[in-house]
Amino acid sequence: MSAPSLAVRGLDVRFVDRGKTFSAVSLESLDVAPGESLALTGPSGCGKSTLLYALAGLLKPSSGTVAWDGSDVYARGESARDAWRRRNVGFVFQDFELLPELSPLRNVLVPATFERFRVDAATRARAESLLEKFGVPARGATGALSRGERQRVALARALLFDPPVILADEPTASLDAASGAAVIAALAEQARAEGRTVIAASHDPLLIKRLGGELRLERGQAKMATA
Ligand SMILES: Nc1ncnc2c1ncn2[C@@H]1O[C@H](COP(=O)(O)OP(=O)(O)O)[C@@H](O)[C@H]1O
Ligand SMILES: [Mg+2]
Fold first, then answer.
1. Is 182 part of a structural domain of the chain?
2. Could you tell me the residue range of the domain that residue 63 belongs to?
3. Looking at the 3D structure of the chain, how many domains does it have?
4. 47-83 pLDDT tens trace
5. Which residue ranges have their beta carbon within 6 Å of ligand 1?
6. Pairing of strands 197-201, 63-68
């Protein structure tokens, strides 16, 4: 898969709160070269999650464009956008969005089950090896795992198709030090890999450092931090 570049132009995501419209994120422009990674930082409520959803094709902005590889994500129809996202974007949600009654293996394989009823052996083997690498058991109920283990299941699911883009929402928040270090190591490895982009909302200085770039959001207004 070729490495995508990201170009955001005139992005504005507005919400209505008690009858008043406000801008949750407003971003004149953002360019990320193929293979570059960055952290989204800024205080709670500044729009980090909203921006990640917009970049993922999960939330259509009120105005502006999000183009990966020169192609506007929101110019596609919904099902084409979903298919594109499954292959190109691994999203790590802040609250994981795992199915607690299913095993870690079944959770990691969820993206594959959208495409085919039967998961092929190579995909299953990759899921198992990701879980093994992250030190999480493949069997048993995911809901019984620790928070750190569940975060690694979510990360393994995002990495299933080795997508060129990983978007992660505060992936080390409320993890113990060892789990946090494992998550940072995995994301840093992905960010270093040829043609891979990792964009993570984070307050974690270690993760921010490993991603190389930083975009600081302040009250819906983004500022590019200078290193
Ligand atoms: N679906 C929504 N409807 C209305 N307001 C929202 C919605 N999602 C987020 N917001 C508001 O938008 C702002 C930015 O939220 P968010 O992107 O979650 O910030 P962050 O991730 O930086 O904490 C906040 O004021 C939040 O309350
Ligand atoms: Mg958030």
1. yes
2. 6-224
3. 1
4. 999 999 999 999 999 999 999 999 999 999 999 999 9
5. 15, 17, 24, 44-50
6. unpaired
Residue 40 has pLDDT above 60, yes or no: yes
Q: For ligand 1, atom 18, which residue shows the shortest CA distance?
A: 49
If 0-12 CB within 10 Å is exposed, 13-18 middle and 19+ buried, where does residue 41 land? buried
Confidence (pTM) = 0.94
Residue nearest to atom 4 of ligand 1 (CA): 15
Question: 150 in a domain, yes or no?
Answer: yes
- How many A from CA of 23 to the centre of ligand 1? 9
Q: Tokens at residue 214, please?
A: 């930083």
**Quick check: is 1 in a domain?**
no
Counting from 1 in the atom list of ligand 1, the atom nearest the Cα of 50 is 17
Task: Give the distance (Å) from ligand 2 centre to CA of residue 17.
Answer: 17
| Residue pair 36/24 in contact by the 8 Å Cβ criterion | no
Residue 206 is predicted with a pLDDT of 95
Does residue 64 fall inside a structural domain? yes
* 118-146 tens-digit pLDDT: 899 999 999 999 999 999 999 999 999 99
The domain spanning residue 163 has which CATH number? 3.40.50.300
